[in-house]
Amino acid sequence: MASQAAVSLTNLRIGCVKYLNARPLIHGWRGPVTLDHPAALCRSLARGELDVALVSSVEFLRNPIYQVVEGVSISSDGPVYSVVVAHAGAISDLDEIELDPAAETSVNLLRCLLSESRLSPRFVRRSTTPLGAHHARLLIGDQAIRFREQYSGLFKFWDLGEQWRRLTSLPFVYALWLVRPEVANVQKIADTLRSLRDANLSRLNDLIAKEKNPEFCRRYYRKHLRFSFGAREQEGLRMFQTLCEKHGLIPKRALKLELT
């Protein structure tokens, strides 16, 4: 566990999701960064193996001990493109959905969306059943992007960001910067992370030009993703909490956003 004393930025144990969507929030960080999948980062942050991490928003909802970096998130206000259910038939005909083992927030979002639609397919972690009329697969992050590029003509893609927007008329928050409660110099850390985000967004074209598929990244960053955490994103997060509680996915509790 981190010391009660202030942690210098150079010694900060910082983690970040290893997906394309996080690049504008972490590119240029001066120091080592643990890059991993959402589920692994959530576990590491909860165990105190990291001081700060860009992790699944559901980690805050189920374990609200953290301080949240104000103004920064990975969100969408409509189709997100990279959080989808790949399916061949109608969503209402599905018997089974295979879950991405790296997913955290997206699994709970999917459960909420299906429950609100009065649909109840089985969820499995591993399956040898091929995608078909009754078996689908939840895909997130870069894996979802690659799958869509490879199989765009063979399958349909139920975009969870789009479905959330239709259900609530609100943005959906996938990831937040969370800071462990024992970390002391939180304001400096938060200011640095906000400045890094602002700098990367101000030169987003330069960042895009370094990617393997700049044309796609231009659409992805500018059309599908948001990197703010303002009043509407906070309202969306609270609505997500409400639905997770309604469907028994997290305990009921008062949510107090400790923004810094």
Overview of the structural elements:
The chain has about 260 residues and is α/β, with parallel strands linked by helices. The chain has 2 domains: about 10-75 and about 175-245, Periplasmic binding protein-like II (D-Maltodextrin-Binding Protein, domain 2), CATH 3.40.190; about 85-170, D-Maltodextrin-Binding Protein, domain 2. Helices cover about 40% and strands about 20% of the residues. The chain has 10 helices and 11 strands. The protein has helices at about 25, 40-45, 55-60, 105-115, 140-150, 160-170, 185-200, 205-210, 215-225, 230-245; strands at about 15, 35, 50-55, 65-75, 85, 95-100, 120-125, 135-140, 155-160, 170-180, 225-230. The strands form 2 sheets. A 6-stranded mixed beta sheet has the order 2-1-3-10-4-11. α1 (about 25) links the parallel β1 and β2. α4 (about 105-115) packs across α6 (about 160-170). The radius of gyration is 18 Å and the shape is globular. The protein starts with 13 loop residues before the first strand and ends in a 14-residue tail after the last helix.
List the helices and strands and how they pair.
Layout lengths: L13 E4 L5 H4 L6 E4 L1 H9 L5 E5 H6 L4 E10 L6 E5 L8 E3 L6 H12 L5 E3 L10 E6 H11 L4 E4 H9 L3 E8 L6 H17 L1 H6 L4 H11 L1 E4 L1 H16 L14
Parallel strand pairs: 1-2, 1-3, 6-7, 6-8
Antiparallel strand pairs: 3-10, 4-10, 4-11, 5-8, 5-9
